[in-house]
Write a structure and sequence with these properties.
The protein is an alpha+beta fold and about 300 residues long. It is built from ten helices and four strands, in the order ααβαβαβαβααααα. Strands 2-3-1-4 form a four-stranded antiparallel sheet. The longest helix is centred in the middle third of the chain and has 42 residues. It is elongated, with a radius of gyration of 31 Å.
Length: about 300
């Protein structure tokens, strides 16, 4: 078995260089298609990370009555924190709300008119961060119920959240669909490119069949050759991606500078997808192409 594998690998290496022009064409096609697939994958992850950040900013703001005591406020916060839909709760006092308002006015270059007021007109509030924007209605209904008399009113952002959920759902679905479509296109082009390389060696396959070579003896050198094309194409594509990583990262940071994106293991996932796709398409393309001749 080991002898057969070594023999097939040697023949694959020889076949790769014996048909250097077709091998080069298949490799370059592999590189271009893998770069296209990696680009769509990275773009999808950046968009999803951006949408995830926007979803995390959705919160319920409930304004409290002026006569609400500290114990009543603490009890409300405890009940909210016990809800499974709630990620965290922040209490903003009237003084803190006034300070934030003044800072916002100053940041926008507007005159602070609150200094002319005799008293602080703002209400204390509890800001509730949600685990999911879909939980907005549940938390809002709980705050607006008659069991929470210290709640004056709840800021209604249901329409905004509905739009956010619609956009995020569409982008996620469209992103997955686009990556799948690009994957199918990559598969089609790579298989046909490798098939052209096999067609150029159709006479060699026919001669091997005439002298009694088994299907495995004919197939596996081509399969290993396809794997070599896929591996070489994946390594070149990864090299180009590494070379372009810094300028692309700076461009994305500049474009999404208002969003502190957390992309995690994106580089590792992209490398794994490029390598696995390159090897898989190379092997599959060779297997399908040689099989066409072996079933005749």
């Amino acid at each position: 078995m080991i002898t057969f594998v070594v023999f097939s690998l040697r023949r694959a290496w020889q076949g790769f260089w014996r048909n250097a022009l077709m091998s080069l064409a298949a490799t370059l096609t592999m590189v271009l298609m893998l770069l296209l697939l990696a680009g769509f994958f990275v773009l999808q992850n950046v968009l999803l990370a951006s949408l995830g950040f926007v979803e995390q900013k959705v919160e319920v703001v409930a304004y409290l009555q002026h006569n609400a005591t500290q114990s009543q406020t603490d009890d409300l916060i405890v009940r909210l924190e016990a809800m499974p839909e709630v990620a965290s709760v922040e209490y903003v006092s009237r003084d803190e709300a006034l300070r934030r308002f003044r800072e916002a006015q100053a940041a926008q270059g507007r005159e602070d008119l609150t200094r002319y007021l005799e008293a602080n007109p703002l209400y204390a509030s509890v800001n509730v961060k949600l685990r999911s924007p879909a939980d907005l209605r549940t938390v809002t209904d709980a705050l607006q119920s008659e069991t929470e008399p210290i709640v004056r009113n709840v800021l209604n952002i249901q329409a905004l959240v509905d739009r956010v959920l619609t956009v995020t759902t569409f982008v996620r679905t469209a992103g997955v669909a686009m990556v799948a479509i690009v994957g199918v296109i990559v598969l089609f082009i790579i298989v046909n490119t490798i098939r052209l390389a096999v067609v150029a060696r159709a006479e060699e396959i026919e001669i091997m069949r005439l002298v009694g070579a088994s299907d495995a003896f004919i197939r596996w050198p081509f399969v290993f050759e396809g794997a070599l094309v896929g591996l070489l194409g994946a390594l070149i594509a990864l090299g180009l991606l590494v070379a372009a990583a810094d300028p692309l990262s700076q461009a994305m940071v500049g474009f999404f500078n208002v969003l502190p994106l957390q992309l995690g293991s994106l580089a590792r996932d992209t490398a794994a997808i490029v390598l696995a796709t390159g090897l898989g398409l190379g092997v599959l393309g060779s297997w399908v192409s040689v099989r066409t001749y072996l079933i005749r």
